[in-house]
Design a protein that fits this description.
By secondary structure, this protein is α+β, with helices and mostly antiparallel strands. The protein has one domain: Sandwich (Jelly Rolls), CATH 2.60.120. Helices cover about 25% and strands about 25% of the residues. The chain contains 6 helices and 16 strands. The strands form 4 sheets. Strands 1, 2, 5, 6, 7, 9, 13 and 16 form an 8-stranded antiparallel β-sheet that branches. The protein has a 4-stranded antiparallel β-sheet with strand order 8-14-11-12, with helices on one face. The chain has a two-stranded antiparallel sheet with strand order 3-4. Helix 1 crosses helix 4. The radius of gyration is 18 Å and the shape is globular.
Length: about 270
């Protein structure tokens, strides 16, 4: 990561770039060395109790219900969300994931993988970096991300379930493609859904803004922990107040203010 331009660095970038171009998802297996994985897991277990847990009915866009929309619109399909998030301001700055998130070499490497000049940290003080916790019997339902590129690192795998499922490129910056989204939600287009079982230490790069995705129900006593590193091609991206309350149970003055930036006009 800290040796740009070397043969191994370039090979990793090419592989990730090709995978992203192919289906919007790339996995760097074993990104975290085996000697660090126990520490990574332990740090996640230490902060997991700080997660905001909330079970509520949402839609795929995490927006407020709009009865003016047609009855078959995907925004009117109820989904139960039962996962939890530890916000960035509750993750120790000495932790491995907090040290990695802003690291210039890490961001430069990821930018090369994605094929953009630069990736910026989110300006969001809560959502830029977080730990996702999915407990037994819970799942993270179908949704889209606020930012274009989601980078995640599995720090603890569940005993069963917790499969990452996604539909690459189902919408674009200029088109919601609601009919296609509705078909996936209704289970009518299962052939488009791709499935991925991640292992601890795997780094995933994913175009989550335009690819519908979810984590299936976790089974067993071991929670699924994932560090989520969120970046954008533009500076200043901040989550909406409503989305932030859903994820973290609170907002800060920055949310919904004049610094909020969206890279497109999609529903969210």
């Amino acid at each position: 990561m800290h040796e740009p331009g070397t043969p191994r660095w370039s090979a990793a970038v090419r592989a990730a770039h090709d995978a992203l171009a192919g289906d919007g998802c790339a996995v760097l297996s074993g990104f975290v060395r085996a000697s660090f994985r126990d520490r990574l897991r332990a740090e996640g277990e230490q902060i997991a109790p700080l997660a905001h847990h909330e079970t509520r009915v949402v839609n795929v866009y995490n927006t407020e219900p709009d009865p003016a929309l047609p009855a078959d619109h995907p925004a009117r399909v109820p989904l139960e969300r039962g996962n939890a998030f530890v916000a960035r301001d509750r993750i120790p700055v000495t932790g491995l994931i907090h040290r990695l998130y802003p690291d210039p070499a890490f961001r430069a490497f990821l930018a090369a993988c994605v094929g953009v000049p630069e990736l910026h940290e989110l300006a969001d003080p809560l959502a830029g970096l977080c730990l996702n916790v999915v407990s037994g019997g819970r799942s993270h339902p179908w949704h889209f991300d606020t930012n274009e590129v989601a980078i995640s690192l599995l720090t603890r795998a569940p005993e069963q379930g917790g499969i990452f499922e996604y539909v690459p490129g189902i919408r674009s910056a200029g088109a919601e493609n609601t009919d296609e989204v509705a078909a996936v939600l209704a289970g009518e287009d299962a052939g488009r859904v791709r499935r991925l079982r991640l292992r601890p230490g795997d780094l995933q790069l994913f175009y989550g803004r335009y690819s519908l995705h979810r984590v299936t129900t976790v089974r067993g006593a071991t929670d699924r922990h994932t560090a989520i590193f969120s970046y954008s091609g533009r500076p200043g991206v901040i989550g909406s107040a409503e989305r932030t309350r859903q994820l973290f149970g609170r907002t800060l003055p920055a949310h919904g203010g004049p610094r909020s930036v969206r890279v497109d006009g999609l529903m969210d």
